[in-house]
Amino acid sequence: MNNAIDECVAAAEKAAQHVATPTLGAPPRRGLAVVMCMDARIDPIRILGLRPGDAHILRNPGALVTDAELRALAISQRKMGTTEVMVIHHTDCGAASLDEPALSAEIADDTGAAPPWDELPYQTVAESVERVRACEALPHRDNVRGFVFHVEDGKLVEVA
Known about the structure:
By secondary structure, this protein is an alpha/beta fold. The chain has one domain (about 25-160): 3-Layer(aba) Sandwich (Beta-carbonic Anhydrase, Chain A). Helices cover about 35% and strands about 20% of the residues. The protein has a five-stranded mixed β-sheet with strand order 2-1-3-4-5. Helix 2 (about 45-50) links the parallel strand 1 (about 30-35) and strand 2 (about 55-60). The radius of gyration is 18 Å and the shape is globular.
């Protein structure tokens, strides 16, 4: 039986000689970190004109800047040399209409325990940008900008 994982493993085997990056170092060449939604319709490499090795890409539902993203950004900045942060939300986001309390209740009903994360309400781009700018663990907080990607027409609009 072929499933999505098997198909991806087969594709990786075929692509190995073309996607290997042995000459690239771990620090992003452009000194950029991007926090964006995990929506499968959005390809950050293509949208932002990036190549492998250009930026750290952090993805989660709704592009929320949580403690996990702040930790990742601290590592990115302090150990990998990034100095700029983009936060990208998008239109038609499923996470924007997600009822977090209902999801938590569903998981608790199914498993007998509350999920191991706090309820994370949808955040606006400006709030996400402000959370990054306010994080004292980040040495580079002056070049943090927020955008909305429009899935309808592919436009990236700066909003914060």
